[in-house]
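User:
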Amino acid sequence: MKIAITGSNGFIGKSLIEELEKKSYECIAIPHKLIYNDDLIVNLAGTSIQKRWTRANKFAIYQSRVHTTNKLVKAIANSVKRPKKIISASAIGIYDKKNIHDEYSHNLSYNFLGKVTRDWESAALYAKNLGMEVYILRLGIVLGHSGGMVLKLYKFFRLGLGATIGNGNQPMSFIHIDDLLRIFSDCIEGKLPENTYNVVSPKYTTNKDFSKAFAKALYKPLFFSIPKFVLSLIYGKGAEVMYKGQRVIPTHLLENNFTFKFPTIEEAINDVVNKFRL
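Assistant: Predicted structure:
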């Protein structure tokens, strides 16, 4: 099977290609255009949201997700032989900060990221009109040793300089990279039915408990906290993604008997830290 992947240079994209090639799938990176006659598309496109939300950066965040997905689906519509399936990344930022959410939740966010995510999903779901199966994967924070948040924080925690953000009570819905890759594989192979999935562990945590688990796994203390105003000075409104979070449950995955290898933050962090030691 040929699988075309957007966002293939990112942490998740590189990890996914490595995993799929182990299974003898032929993976093709899509820069900004569709590769025709592929069997399946994985859409991971999107620039980082961890930056100051200037007008230019907000434009780039929106364009890289919504407009890229629109162009991708338009290219599929114009192709002679269409792929059978598209698996499109989304984010739990679609939900508000107040409630506990599963895929049946109607308590959506109407801030900037909420709008980006709703439009992003709508762009992907248009592919249903082309007779394609559409999977929407709403990703939480992805934990792995080769990229993402953990790699950025590792050097600080290893030196005993790890910190919570504010009081650390903000919720954190996460997924271990290995569980994420298994979910992608199950979608590709049809083991999971076409649907929208919250791709998070069944046991969300808090920033404080994440930081405690990280420090403990490295046998380091946890003395510090970063005041919210410091992050706001650096990132502006973009700091909200660091000191606010969502409580999210993966009901559709649990309904389909998906088994998580790393359901708790302690299990996930211990495995990631052990991989740094290899």
